[in-house]
Amino acid sequence: MKASFFQRGGYSTPQGIRSNWPVSPALYEPAYGRESLHHAIEQCELADQLGFDWVSFSEHHYMTTVAPNPALAAAAVATRVRRAKIALLGHNLVLNNPIKVAEDLATLDTLSDGRLVVGFLRGTPNEFQVYTVNPAESRDLALESVELILRAWTERVPFSWEGRHYQYRTVAVWPRPVQQPYPRCYVLGGSKETAEFAARRHLGLGVAYVPFSLLPTTIHYYRERCTEAGWHPTPDDILYRGAICVARSEEEAQQIAARCVFKNLNVIMRGSINEAVAQLDPSGMNIAKMGEASMARFVGTPDMIVRQIADCKAQGGVGVIDFGFHVPGMAHNEVMSRMELFGAEVLPKIRDI
Amino acid sequence: MQASFFCTNGYNSREALGHPGWPTPPALYQSKIGLQSLNVALEQAKLADELGFDWVSCSEHHYTPLLQTPNAAVFAGALSQVVRKAKIAVLGPLVSMNNPVRIAEELAMLDQLSSGRLVVLFLRGTPNEFLAYDTNPDETRSRTQEASILIIRALTEPQPFGWEGRHYRFRTVSVWPGPIQRPHPPMYYSGNSFESATFAAAHRLGLGVSFYPPHRVAQLVGYYKQECAKHGWEPSPDQLLYRCFAAVGEDDREADALKAAFLGMRSAVESLMQGRGAALPPPPQSQVGLGLGELRFCGNPYTLVKQVTDFHEATGVGVIDFGFAGEPMKSIRLFGTEVLPRIRRIGARVSQPSELAAAAAG
Asked: Which side of chain A, N or C, has fewer Cβ within a 10 Å radius?
């Protein structure tokens, strides 16, 4: 079992910020901002030293926890973290020009000496408001984006692309990925269409935050589609992201986990935006509706965590887990000490899972 | 006078660099060389920083081995960790063809990452670059202007806002994180024409001029200063930025050899500008003849000091962004040790007696 450190916490103050989305720039204090980002880099360096296999980055806009351009954060960290893989999980495909994503990722693979891992992310409904995207088209948009990115990495002559959502007269991405034909990729999402697409293109699958009991159905569906496509995924092809609350006592861990409940997070949208999104997304992907659901799947003492990791593997055949240590209001030192606890008492025991 | 080192991240292969036309086929790329080139670029930046260059800069270019930085902000992210003292100068993003809110977000992140050392120049781009993301060339001037205003707004507006412009529409903008420098990092506008200079003056942006000969730079700077006066402000010398190529040799013979090699490479640069292989007609001769690809400064270190002094006297420019011809590490070292210390005092303001008295008193 591989462990990835999910870098969150691009901005944190001792008291935390209670706000709806989007968060007002007026609440940003440069002194805290400067400190927070340096803390984030320190956490990545610690993860590298403790033996985490990957350090990962994601993209969110107009909120306090995660940065809007993951490639930028990763570029800085890649010069400081020399062993662990650099995992972009991932660019929000709906909000990005696919050629730019292809260029950013190729640059990162070069910067990190061939240590890049890529996750293709469709994004959450509130983010469609960020750059004014039509949510109904977002799935098709994201899938066409992936096709174009893979082509841009592999085509050896300048080519043009006439797609439904993207048109480019001439594409010739420079620099190229170091890893050939391209870095290991995961398609991030739990839907049927995601699983079908990943299977068809021989890409890994990543799911986030779902209860373990829901994993078998999702992964089974993916495996069946892979068989139809003529290949069999290994555990390394299946990625799970979840929040972790590890402590010396179960009680302490539960207290931390209570802070991970959705309604405490900065993703509850302001009134009119919430309504607009609710109308546009009848499938209920709107995470604001998840109400009391918790993102914390790994809660307890180190031994309990080891058992939960084994459970995750048993239920879903997962081979990589992307752990988010940072919960709202958690100070940098606390994040570091929880990472150290994990590194000392969990990491060595999960290698054989 | 301040000096900036232009970090181009060029791909280290004669075959790829000599390929005519644009774009260069990806088939000519080898990972090993790509890796080596990038590591060398970061070494160059580090050396320039150690020797006391005031800025280290990068620029956005697509589909070419000459400058492998399709996202200047991402490359600058790496620079921010390797360059610890000099300013991180993103000169610049091509604002006519990218999402301006994304650019604002990236700039804020960079300012944060560099602990408040960011400097940015808003660039329009050259005709071949417009093809990379399929931007209508006829619209690029007005897109550049609208994008620049939106970027400034996105970095300074304290509450979420919407934007209904001619080229850009956003229902809600709320950039997070924000910049460290307040009200915002130093900003420049690419002012290679009178119209651009007018815009820069009207929006209190510094002026960035590239490659033109001294008399033309002087013209633009003079015009820009007049426009600034109309808007009630006066730019300081460090708000006048000039980008150019330079060749510094230990002696004149070496400098001449560097010049000859550079001019041999010029055809690659020209073909880049002309966007051969695309459906655009080549730009009018006047554009290409106006200095792109020329070596503005060339000679031994003492000659260079004199040339830079003369250039400042003719134009008033306070920051020069140098791209070095030949082997950059050697040029950086030579320039950094022999030229840089001697050009610091150029343009230094002589204090008035009243200022000295005030300083002594308080």
From this structure: C
CATH number of the domain within which A272 lies: 3.20.20.30
CB A23 within 8 A of CB B105: no
The number of C-beta contacts closer than 8 angstroms across A and B is 206
Looking at the complex, report in whole angstroms how far the Cα of residue A173 sits from the nearest Cα belonging to chain B.
5
| Pairwise CB contact (< 8 Å): A62 & B182 | no
B168 touching A (Cβ < 8 Å): no
Q: Which domains does chain B have, with CATH numbers?
A: 2-361 (3.20.20.30)
CA atoms within 13 A on the CB side of B83: 35
Q: Please tell me which of the candidates A64, A68, A157 has its beta carbon nearest to residue B109.
A: A68
Q: Would you tell me which residues 51-80 of chain B have a C-beta closer than 8 angstroms to some C-beta of chain A? A: 62-65, 68-71, 73-78, 80
Residue A283 has pLDDT above 60, yes or no: no
Q: With 90 as the cut, is the pLDDT of residue B242 above it?
A: yes
Q: Is the pLDDT of residue B227 over 60?
A: yes
- Location of structure tokens 């988010």: A324
Q: How many domains does chain A have?
A: 1
pLDDT category at B349 given cuts 50, 70, 90 is low
- With a cut of 0.90, is the ipTM above it? no
In angstroms, what CA-CA distances link B123 with B120, B132, B188, B195? 9, 15, 9, 14
Q: Is there a contact between A131 and B115 if contact means CB atoms under 8 Å apart? A: no
- The H-or-E segment that residue B84 falls in is none
Distance from C-alpha of B68 to C-alpha of A240, rounded to nearest angstrom: 34
Query: What pLDDT is recorded for position B281?
Result: 47
Average of per-residue pLDDT across A156-184: 93
Provide, as residue numbers in chain A, all residues whose Cβ is less than 8 Å from the Cβ of B68. Answer: 107, 174-175
Write the single-letter amino acid at A249.
Answer: S
Determine, for residues B177 and A104 on separate chains, whether the beta-carbon distance falls below 8 Å.
no
pLDDT for residue B288: 38
- Our CA-based measurement puts residue B36 at a distance from the nearest CA of chain A, in whole angstroms, of 9
Q: Which residue of A has its CA nearest to B62?
A: A174
pLDDT band at A10 (very low <50, low <70, confident <90, very high): low
Q: What average pLDDT score do residues A257-270 get? A: 56
CA gap B29, A179 in Å, rounded: 13
pLDDT of B280 over the 60 cut: no
Which residues in chain B have Cβ-Cβ distances shorter than 8 Å to A172? 23-26, 63
User: Average pLDDT for residues B31-48, to the nearest whole number?
Assistant: 95
Q: What residues make up the domain containing A240? A: 2-350
DSSP secondary structure of A28-40: --HHHHHHHHHHH
Interface test with chain A among B112, B131, B133, B180, by most A beta carbons within 10 Å: B112
Q: Which of A9-18, A193-202, B314-323 has the lowest mean pLDDT?
A: A9-18
Integer angstrom CA distances of residue B226 from A170, A210, B219: 42, 63, 11
Contact A172 B25 (CB under 8 A): yes
- With 90 as the cut, is the pLDDT of residue A296 above it? no
Mean local confidence (pLDDT), B105-134: 92
State the Cα angle at A322 between A320 and A323, rounded to 5°. Answer: 130
CA–CA distance, B190 with B211 (Å, rounded to integer): 12
Q: Is B82–A97 a contact, with Cβ atoms under 8 angstroms apart? A: no
Is the per-residue pLDDT at A290 higher than 50?
Answer: no
